[in-house]
Fold each of these.
Amino acid sequence: MKFRDITGHEREKALLREMADNDRIPHALLLEGPSGAGKFMLARAFAQYIHCTERTPDGDSCGQCPSCRQHESFNHIDTVFTFPVVKKSGRPTLSDDYIADFRDYMTANPFMDLKKWILTLDNINAQPQIYVEEGNELLRRLTFMSRRSKYKVAILWLPERLKTDTANKLLKLVEEPFADTKFIMVSNEPRKILPTIYSRTQRIAVIRYSDAEVAAILESRGIDAATAADAAIVAEGDVNQAISLAEAGSERLRLLELFKTLMRAAYSRQVGKLREWSKEVAEMGREPAMDFLDYCCRLFRESFLMHLNVDTLQTLNAGEREFTVKFFPFINNRNVLGLIELFDRSRRDIAGNGNAKIIFFDMAVRTIMLIRR
């Protein structure tokens, strides 16, 4: 991965180049920002630039030296990848045990869609973590001296998913690393990182892509301009979400239909239908169910904004707009906060491994009382 392969982020690229060119690379660097902003691509490009032996005059890795070729195949001996995995009976919980899957995943999903990684792990209800065994293994591997380069680089994806025991084990290593070791961490939710780890990193904020940049990225993947523009508006800078929207229109339509069914059944007080609806949504699995609740909250906000009659504030696709122009009068200042708080609370309960059928049915019944306000 070279810097020129990454759309935008010229400020961030310049900062990273300057660090490497002046040999002022922090011992622990954190690239933080929203999902789908290309942070992991920047981390990969930076690691390759650090190890490249023939950097180009315009400030990029050459792509031809042995180090660059090894990076392109994810086999550089002085680069270590650490990432969240799931525990399975009889299977270790080390990143290296999943490294073949992770290489394929990085190739197919350079913007690092966590949902697709969960699907790769073949457990739709999984909550991937970085376990304490990984901390022990990382410490063991970094003990060895760098082989081909001046620095060993440990790329840690999603440090917010470090188990507390793992974070505590890595704390000393991050605080006082080996002289030839550099950490590059990539976080979607930096507030969830253990404060003692977070405070010992030098941070670069990676801002979201503009809608035009997202649309251009989608078009480069062979998606037609109209679909790309529509997905970019809804995704709000998240390339992963935009790709999912563009490539899975039927799934998006299903979420909209589930939302319609809930609102109509709640308004007409059809408790039996709400019970059946709750069972259907619960069977989606934890992560898809959480995504659906996020989607519902978004439609509540969009419906409330429609009262302002300012089109530039809307991020709806054609199907959502067709429904929302009829639905928005039911969302007002008397119920919008209550609905969003209800659905947010349900999302937290689902994330906490609560009984999905009970949670969704309780939420649906409470919606009856709110939707008529």
Amino acid sequence: MIMASCSGSGKEQVAGSHDSATAVSAADPLLLPLPQVPDSLTEPVERASFLAMHFWDAMDWKDRSRSLDTAFVEQNFANYLTVLPLADSLSRVQGVDALMKSAEADSAAYAFLGETAAKYLGDPNSPMRDEELYILFLRELTRSPLTDGAMKMRYDHHLEAAMKNRPGMRAADFRLADAEGRITTLHELAASAPRTVVLFYDPDCDHCKETVARLASVRVPESVRITAVDVMGDRDRFEATKNEFPSGWRVAFALDPIEDRGLYVLPALPSLYLLNRSAQVLLKDAPIGAITQQLDVDN
């Protein structure tokens, strides 16, 4: 049952009801009373879609004892994020739209909700980071008259970055020099294998080195090539470190300043992308676990 994963405590049960206004009382004071899912909705996607649109029905955004309570808002927001990805695409859009419009009842609550969305969905260090879901919130945040000044500029920037190189799009192309000094492009490298893992890295980044070690420890299918791309712009440093990668990897130096040119936004390094032979983005800025799962790799 969907709500078993939503409550986080196992205390909530989904009791079937045709009265969608009836709410399940939350035993935990940090949990919103949740709407009952009608008996007529039997498929998991239908039930998740209903909850995506009605999860926040019991929330009074004018009640600042709750709407500005960090623990309360973050707990329920995290629970909401366990439901949202399971819903159909239209319900995800409509659910976020309804949530943000209801939060406009109080400007402080609205601002705090926006900050919470940025923290959970936009922060590169968040375990719940999901740029596609963040886009739904950013579209509302950038449209709302309650978002202005510095926050408007911030969310506009976040939305612009999120819209670049999305899954399904063709990755922005740029020139590279490989370890032997040959000039090529990202699209040319992608075309040489059914799938390519692109690791954007900084040669002096410890986290990058840890990621390289982790990737080196997994069994990668022969149809997959790993390409490490130094994006820091120091050619001498690249030459001094290019041989530190596992054999079989392609190592290259970005000749074009890809961030300065607005081709990619790399909020934190390393950044992992998965491309197909046409350079279509399959995964963007993804954790290693998502990469290996997509490749069906045994860790």
